[in-house]
């Protein structure tokens, strides 16, 4: 990088302004700002004067066309100041629409137009100029200007908060680059290998991730076709575990060859459970009875439902612990996963209850009786999100030819492993072989909250011999699949593409909520395929061999470590 204060050319021939030109522009802009302030003051003063005079004429029944000399002068001043303001701000606005920002930046220092250094947009990055198309996964050193270098030093010194870069610069990609370099200088650690280019940082602003410095690459594989409820699905799975996609794909093949699987949505309702406290346990019990009284449900539901077009209160389940009361609200949430939706509805009800029960002390909008992102018996028993059961009958010849095992060993293994073994371990919702593997992979690929894999993977896998012991009946019951097709990470380009592949992108216009319910059944169907394949591998003694083949790197680790 050249010394500070000298002109430096960037890609595309752009020049960075020197310190001298910056100072000239600063003085000119100060004078222009002063002139603008004078004309704005004159404009509003004249408007106020004219409005007051016309109001007096109306009150005195004086004709409006009869004007005094002072009023004529005021009208002339009004038009003069109006023309000036339109000429200054209006031309700049039209110019920004017609002339691309990049073309303004390409003008040399000798030109009449100067690059605007301050960005006054209300949304910092929504209209940021697109960065030039980079090389795919470019990890080469960043080309930073002198101005960027000063900002980096300010961030490292603690004078500029890292979280404020997007709003300060108005360019999300540039903010990420500056934050990344500041982090490397502050820690002395390199981020080479973590890509920066090739990602739309505007799309995550204020909704997906704060203070980004790059993005992590996770490969996406396809398992399928999965034949479910008469339709075929190619299931995207984002994972770094070798053999997982191949194993799930084998399960899909066995299901397809046997005529497909079927699934049913048992329940559909997201929950939120605030905790409140009273002076006595008796008062807590009184609120419990009030909330569970059928006569009060309709007015409470009207209050709850007013917060959203799709959120509809279904039930309120209460539990008392001493003088504390836990209220578990359940509501439908359309195609959204619905945590924010149900929280808004609950807040409305809490505001209402505070008036009816003024001695109620709201401790927290979430009291863990929901229960979110934690294994909990209440989710296992009552359900949360989508409760789904999925089943298939695998024919005897498919079990032998595709899965390389027999029905009897599979049934015995499932009983001793998934049922008895899980009970011995004190499992909570973990009566399966590896449901969380498939749930996590599909969740990451489709933009779900990966942390909700905890309760979404609650699953009991059942197997039994049918048709005189020749065929295998397999089912998975999953009571708390928390999933959506709108909001959060579902709107990101990659995740949106995976949802589109499954035919459930965005919200359903015809039947709100049908896309998220369909996605939940696909997750359950993929889990069914994964359970079938892994259990077959265990029964046939294939697990270790397959993982040694597909889940181990062929690189010489000693050479990699020495590099």
From TrEMBL:
GO MF term list: hydroxymethylglutaryl-CoA reductase (NADPH) activity
EC number: 1.1.1.34
Catalyzed reactions: (R)-mevalonate + 2 NADP(+) + CoA = (3S)-3-hydroxy-3-methylglutaryl-CoA + 2 NADPH + 2 H(+)
Residues spanning the membrane: 31-51, 72-94
Database matches in CDD domains: HMG-CoA_reductase_classI
Listed pathway(s): Metabolic intermediate biosynthesis; (R)-mevalonate biosynthesis; (R)-mevalonate from acetyl-CoA: step 3/3
Gene3D superfamilies cross-referenced by the UniProt entry: 3-hydroxy-3-methylglutaryl-coenzyme A Reductase, Chain A, domain 2, HMGR, N-terminal domain, Hydroxymethylglutaryl-CoA reductase, class I/II, NAD/NADP-binding domain
Pfam families associated with the record: HMG-CoA_red (PF00368)
Domain of life: Eukaryota
GO biological processes: coenzyme A metabolic process; response to jasmonic acid; saponin biosynthetic process; sterol biosynthetic process; triterpenoid biosynthetic process
Class in the EC hierarchy, top level: oxidoreductase
Keyword Flavoprotein attached: no
One of the record's GO cellular component terms: peroxisomal membrane
InterPro entries recorded: HMG_CoA_Rdtase (IPR002202), HMG_CoA_Rdtase_cat_sf (IPR023074), HMG_CoA_Rdtase_CS (IPR023076), HMG_CoA_Rdtase_eu_arc (IPR004554), HMG_CoA_Rdtase_N (IPR023282), HMG_CoA_Rdtase_NAD(P)-bd_sf (IPR009023), HMG_CoA_Rdtase_sub-bd_dom_sf (IPR009029)
Main location: endoplasmic reticulum
Mode of membrane association: Multi-pass membrane protein
Family: Belongs to the HMG-CoA reductase family.
NCBIfam families in the record: HMG_CoA_R_NADP
Name of the protein in its database record: 3-hydroxy-3-methylglutaryl coenzyme A reductase
Source organism of this protein record: Bacopa monnieri
């Amino acid at each position: 990088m050249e010394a500070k204060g000298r002109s430096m050319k960037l890609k595309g021939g752009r020049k960075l302004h020197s310190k001298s030109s910056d100072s000239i522009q600063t003085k000119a802009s100060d004078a222009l700002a002063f002139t603008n302030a004078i004309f704005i003051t004159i404009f509003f003063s004249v408007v106020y004067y004219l409005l007051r005079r016309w109001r007096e004429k109306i009150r005195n029944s004086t004709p409006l066309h009869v004007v005094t000399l002072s009023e004529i002068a005021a009208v002339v001043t009004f038009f003069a100041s109006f023309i000036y303001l339109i000429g200054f701000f209006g031309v700049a606005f039209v110019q920004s629409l017609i002339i691309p920002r990049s073309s303004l930046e390409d003008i040399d220092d000798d030109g009449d137009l100067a690059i605007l250094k301050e960005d006054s947009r209300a949304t910092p990055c929504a209209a940021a100029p697109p960065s030039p198309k980079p090389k795919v996964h470019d990890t080469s050193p960043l080309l930073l200007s002198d101005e960027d270098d000063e900002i980096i030093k300010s961030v490292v010194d603690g004078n500029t908060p890292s979280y404020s870069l997007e709003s300060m610069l108005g360019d999300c990609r540039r903010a990420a680059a500056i934050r990344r370099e500041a982090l490397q200088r502050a820690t002395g650690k390199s981020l080479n290998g973590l890509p920066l280019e090739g990602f739309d940082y505007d799309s995550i602003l204020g909704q997906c991730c704060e203070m980004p410095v790059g993005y992590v690459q996770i490969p996406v594989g396809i398992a399928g076709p999965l034949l479910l409820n008469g339709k075929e699905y190619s299931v995207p799975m984002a994972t770094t575990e070798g053999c997982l996609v191949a194993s799930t794909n084998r399960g899909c093949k066995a299901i397809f060859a046997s005529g497909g699987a079927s699934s049913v949505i048992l329940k559909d309702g997201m929950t939120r459970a605030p905790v409140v406290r009273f002076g006595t346990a008796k008062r807590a019990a009184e609120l419990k009875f009030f909330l569970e009284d059928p006569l009060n449900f309709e007015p409470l539901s009207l209050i709850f439902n007013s917060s959203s077009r799709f959120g509809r209160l279904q039930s309120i389940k209460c539990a008392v612990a001493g003088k504390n009361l836990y209220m578990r609200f359940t509501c439908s949430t359309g195609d959204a996963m619905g945590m924010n939706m149900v929280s808004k509805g609950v807040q409305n009800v809490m505001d209402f209850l505070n008036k009816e029960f003024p001695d109620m002390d709201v401790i927290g909008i979430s009291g863990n009786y929901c229960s979110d992102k934690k294994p909990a018996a209440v989710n296992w028993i009552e359900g949360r999100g989508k409760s789904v059961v999925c089943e298939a009958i695998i024919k005897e010849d498919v079990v032998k030819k595709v899965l390389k095992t027999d029905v009897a060993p599979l049934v015995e293994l499932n009983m001793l492993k998934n049922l008895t073994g899980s009970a011995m371990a004190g499992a909570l919702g973990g009566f399966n072989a590896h449901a969380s593997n498939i749930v996590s992979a599909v969740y990451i690929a489709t933009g779900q909250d990966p942390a909700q894999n905890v309760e979404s993977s609650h699953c009991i896998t059942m197997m039994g011999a049918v048709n005189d012991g020749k065929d295998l009946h397999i089912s998975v019951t999953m009571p708390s699949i928390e999933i959506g097709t709108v909001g959060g990470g579902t709107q990101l380009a990659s995740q949106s593409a995976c949802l589109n592949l499954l035919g459930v992108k965005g919200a359903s216009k015809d039947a709100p909520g049908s896309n998220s319910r369909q996605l939940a059944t696909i997750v359950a169907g993929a889990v069914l395929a994964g359970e079938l394949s892994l259990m077959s591998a265990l029964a046939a003694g294939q697990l270790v061999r397959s993982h040694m083949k597909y889940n181990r790197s062929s690189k010489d680790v000693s050479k990699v470590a020495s590099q």
